[in-house]
Amino acid sequence: MKERGYYAGFGGAYLPEVLVATFDELVEAFYRAKNDPSFWKEYTEIMASYSCRPTPLTFAGNLTAHFGGARIYVKREDLNHTGAHKANNVMGQGLLVKRMGKTRVIAETGAGQHGVATATMAAKFGFRCTIYMGEVDVNRQRPNVFWMERLGAEVVPVREGTRILKDAINEAFRDWVTNMDTTHYVLGTACGPHPFPEMVSYFQSIIGKEAREQILECEGRLPKRVYACVGGGSNALGVFRAFMDDPVELVGVEAGGKGLDTQEHASRLCSKDASIGVAQGYKTYFLQNSDGQMKETHSVAAGLDYVGVSPILASLKESGRVRFEAATDREVVEALSLTIRKEGLIPALESAHAFVQAFKEAPGMSPDDSIIINQSGRGDKDIFTVADAFGDPKWQAFIKAKAEEYHA
Ligand SMILES: Cc1ncc(COP(=O)(O)O)c(C=O)c1O
């Protein structure tokens, strides 16, 4: 264990001896790049030319009129190349990999967005790529698996444990231990051992930097609140970081699944079911039993279905700087439906968690106030889950006809 990368006692780097040198190399490469002004310039240039940055801040006029309170703005991370904020992190890490001279990247993925983003980055930079994905997620996010394979990545379904994100992370670490010389592990969220929480949130901070400038331009003053969904915590930290020293309330929304009293959720920071522990190389709140065994989690959104949470967010919960709430699966589908109909926006199921909480609070706020919701990704990938949730008969008929066609 190294005495660094702690946030009010959370975080750290609890590593097997064999990985220490690799992490030292990564820490050094990251800080060298961070202190080199040409690196951020190179990063923002590639994000502009390849990933449509800066992403817009869209005024949601119809939703604002519908709720009759605060003026609602949406930060459009869905417009990144590959459809989510994940591109910000992978392109940054890709530039670091080039600097470190490695030739292969591996990654874990839950919703598949981070896997697609990593496979895309690997195709662009010419790296070999392997993606680990829990078998459950492979089945519920098939379109993303299809694209990862087309992009040249090997997708490995993980059949260990509960076959979701945490199991994919374990498998990726196993791979890294045996291939450190050639391989970089592109961790997809602000979790894991130091320097990942700091490094991932550093790359994601581009979201808040832009959003803060954009809202000042639109409104002439800061927003009252900023909302983001919380899986591992990268899009939330990305948008929050720029507002940390401002009088702006920051609200993180976790997966309330079937309800916080059902045990079928993935809420680490606002349920009573999580406790502090060390796993996957870092210390944070985990959904674990009294023996330290990880619990099963549930969320309609694969990208929020994770047992741990960023140590930076855990510290911000303890200090009270960020407020945490949870949205249930049912609330998420309702908020998604309303957003689609009213604004023509299709947020990812993950992002829709942030919309739920904003919709609960906007009516009670003054029309002079504004709020920002971070739309971390687009919902196209969720078509199977959402169509099931809506029980869409035309979609079901289409799938049945396709299945018959394949049988024939
Ligand atoms: C669209 C989208 N939003 C949010 C998340 C959650 O991750 P994080 O909390 O790191 O932003 C994911 C994860 O896959 C995602 O795909």
Characterize the structure shown.
By secondary structure, the chain is α/β, with parallel strands linked by helices. It has 16 helices and 14 strands. The protein has a 6-stranded mixed β-sheet, sandwiched between helices. The chain has a 4-stranded parallel β-sheet with strand order 7-6-5-8, sandwiched between helices. α4 runs parallel beside α5 and α13 packs across α14. The chain is globular and about 55 Å long. The chain starts with a strand and ends with a helix. The mean pLDDT is 96. The protein binds pyridoxal-5'-phosphate.
- Ligands: pyridoxal-5'-phosphate
What percent of residues adopt helix (DSSP H or I)? 40-55%
**Terminal residue distance:** 58 Å
Taking the sheet with the most strands, its summary is: 6 strands, mixed
Please count the beta strands (DSSP E, at least 2 residues each): 14
Low-confidence residue ranges: none
Query: How would you state the average pLDDT, rounded?
Result: 96
- Give the percentage of residues in beta strands: 15-25%
Overall geometry comes to globular
Q: How do the helices and strands line up, and which of them pair or pack?
A:
Blueprint: E1 2-7, E2 10-13, H1 20-34, H2 37-51, E3 57-59, H3 61-67, E4 71-76, H4 86-100, E5 104-109, H5 113-125, E6 128-134, H6 135-140, H7 142-150, E7 154-158, H8 165-178, E8 183-185, H9 196-204, H10 206-219, E9 225-229, H11 234-240, E10 249-257, E11 275-279, E12 282-286, H12 311-319, E13 322-328, H13 329-343, H14 349-361, E14 370-375, H15 383-390, H16 393-407
Parallel strand pairs: 4-14, 5-6, 5-8, 6-7, 9-10, 9-14, 10-13
Antiparallel strand pairs: 1-2, 3-4, 11-12
Helix pairs in contact: 2-4, 4-5, 4-9, 5-7, 9-11, 10-11, 13-14
The structure holds pyridoxal-5'-phosphate (PLP).
